[in-house]
């Protein structure tokens, strides 16, 4: 898990060092089994969340820079959100990567909660019908998605403000190359929503 955190944050730092604390090292304790550490450059953080006036633009820049030379979606290693693994296999199709990642998420849920009939049915219908109806139009009839490097778990607990620079800092990422995270109104001013035409109801 710690090695994945190091690789994840290194990937983001190499693309957007101005908003990521530099990862320095990771390893295990010699005298304590199953005890690990992750070290990054120290930044004093405020108790504020990033300002909406500049944070969406910085996220959009991360997505643009990180996706500039990428042709495939997904991420080559398994990352972790807390204790939960996140696996999004590498593929040239966002629908394929997302569907397989969703299957992995359902697998984790079933490992911990069992396989209730309702959830099994929901899983089958969601992956077979809803995902294709939402995502396939983004990559058909001449439309094309460009993979963008995304943080993967952006919320106010994974972002803060550097006291010295006043710039946002992001951490605890579960990154992947994905369809850009276009769910913030201010964000779409800097990275437009993909065109899509969905004729059928979900």
TrEMBL record:
A single Gene Ontology MF term assigned here is: protein-ribulosamine 3-kinase activity
Catalysed reaction, written as an equation: N(6)-D-ribulosyl-L-lysyl-[protein] + ATP = N(6)-(3-O-phospho-D-ribulosyl)-L-lysyl-[protein] + ADP + H(+)
Q: Recorded E.C. number(s)? A: 2.7.1.172
Supply the Pfam families for this chain: Fructosamin_kin
User: Sorted alphabetically, which SUPFAM superfamilies does this protein's record hold?
Assistant: Protein kinase-like (PK-like)
* InterPro entries found in the cross-reference section: Fructo-/Ketosamine-3-kinase, Kinase-like_dom_sf
Residues passing through the membrane, by range: none
Q: Kind of enzyme, top EC level?
A: transferase
What name is this protein filed under?
protein-ribulosamine 3-kinase
What is the native source organism of this protein? Grosmannia clavigera (strain kw1407 / UAMH 11150) (Blue stain fungus)
């Amino acid at each position: 898990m710690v090695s994945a955190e190091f690789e994840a944050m290194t990937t983001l730092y190499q693309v957007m060092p101005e908003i990521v604390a530099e990862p320095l090292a990771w390893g295990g304790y010699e005298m304590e089994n199953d005890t690990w550490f992750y070290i990054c450059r120290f930044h004093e953080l405020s108790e504020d969340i990033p300002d909406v006036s500049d944070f969406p633009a910085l996220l959009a820049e991360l997505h643009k820079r990180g996706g500039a030379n990428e042709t495939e979606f997904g991420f080559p290693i398994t990352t972790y959100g807390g204790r939960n693994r996140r696996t999004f296999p590498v593929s040239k199709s966002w629908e394929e990567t997302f569907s397989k990642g969703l299957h992995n998420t359902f697998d984790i849920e079933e490992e911990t909660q069992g396989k209730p009939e309702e959830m099994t049915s929901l899983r089958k219908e969601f992956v077979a019908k809803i995902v294709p109806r939402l995502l396939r139009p983004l990559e058909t009839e001449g439309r094309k998605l460009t993979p963008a490097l995304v943080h993967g778990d952006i919320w106010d607990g994974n972002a803060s403000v550097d006291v010295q620079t006043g710039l946002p800092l992001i951490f605890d990422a579960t990154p992947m190359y994905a369809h850009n995270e276009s769910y913030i109104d201010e964000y779409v001013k800097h990275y437009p929503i993909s065109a899509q035409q969905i004729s059928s109801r979900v």
